[in-house]
Amino acid sequence: MEIFRKQLSVVAFRFSASARRTVVVRRKGPGFLMKVAPPVTTIRSILSISSSSPISAAAEMTGIALESEAEMPVALKSTTAIAANVNGHSNGPASNGTHYSRRAPLPHQTNGHHTNSPSVNGYGHHSKVFDNGESPSSNGKWQPFLIGVAGGTASGKTSVCSKIMNKLGQNDLEHHERRVVTISADSFYRVLDDAERTRAHAGEFNFDHPDALDYELILNTMHTLLAGEKASIPVYDFVTHSRLPTEYINVYPADVVLFEGILVFYFPELRNLFKLKLFVDMDADTRLARRVTRDLKERGRELKSVLNQYTNFVKPAFEEFCLPTKKYADVIIPRGAENEVAINLIVQHIKEHLLPLASENGSPRRSMHELEAALPVEVNGR
Ligand SMILES: Nc1ncnc2c1ncn2[C@@H]1O[C@H](COP(=O)(O)OP(=O)(O)O)[C@@H](O)[C@H]1O
Ligand SMILES: O=c1ccn([C@@H]2O[C@H](COP(=O)(O)O)[C@@H](O)[C@H]2O)c(=O)[nH]1
Q1: Phosphoribulokinase/uridine kinase domain: which residues (predicted)?
Q2: What φ, ψ does residue 200 adopt, rounded to 5°?
């Protein structure tokens, strides 16, 4: 297990320049399959890495090779479903309105003692797990690791987050044990007045403009989670273009928070909260085709209005507000959720953040075992 842990620690973003051959370790049932493979692909063809990223220098130096094996497509969920599913506490339309009680302490947060506060035992000494050289927080206290996931409409942001959650085995865990959560910016569309709602129903409201979002609530929510507290966020209904009046989602403190949305890199203050920024890249034709299918099936739209909205608002706003934020990304993921290799690298990066926290706190390392058990992917080492 220790060997496996060491192998984990050298993958993803800590490639050595000397790594010219790749040991592929694949978990198959209870054992490991190990093999040595020659380089097959360079990291540049798998995912684009921003030149400003601390990752880029390491990647530039390496000829690291990666292998991947196609997986079955994951079940794809609607954005709202994902937002709800992430914390598992949706009180969405089909629920009975019962809210979950406060999240139980995570194994690594208790040191064997029960506490309701995820931030009680300051994790300043874990700063080494942050590859960007920053400590978990400015005051040395534990903070969640915030990851922003941007990209155009229907680029696959939700699907990428869903895959990350699945690969980390988070969807299989009891809700109170989950250490990674996903939140969608779709939950934060602001409340429209009557005139705006009328325009929205006619397909004449610009939901792709930054003003369509309740930015204040977004920031408050992020700061609440960073403080290790529970946040309650609205449930958005795309059919009525409004929040469900009596429903909300409880998001409980987690070690890693994925926040996905078309404009999550647009606002500087929000953008600066992210320790890792991902941009999901997909060509416009594919995105339009997927959006049409999704909006007709899941968002109660007519073809004509989807196309009008796309031409008048979605496309121009993408070019004006979303695409320019691609430059802020640390990692660009071409082909969205199809890009297993890129997603596996990100999963490894998250594991590198989570595993040391679990093992260095005197915890029974249950979470580490759970994460490893849930890892059906190749792991590259030396
Ligand atoms: N690789 C894929 N192949 C086919 N359909 C996909 C793929 N990825 C996403 N989709 C579909 O495209 C639509 C948009 O995907 P989603 O992940 O919700 O994107 P976003 O969150 O960026 O809007 C969804 O209906 C989803 O099922
Ligand atoms: O009431 C609404 C609110 C938003 N939209 C559209 O949603 C997308 C963003 O969601 P993705 O899941 O990233 O596609 C945005 O382009 C808005 O146009 C909407 O149609 N109606």
Answers
A1: 146-342
A2: -60, -45
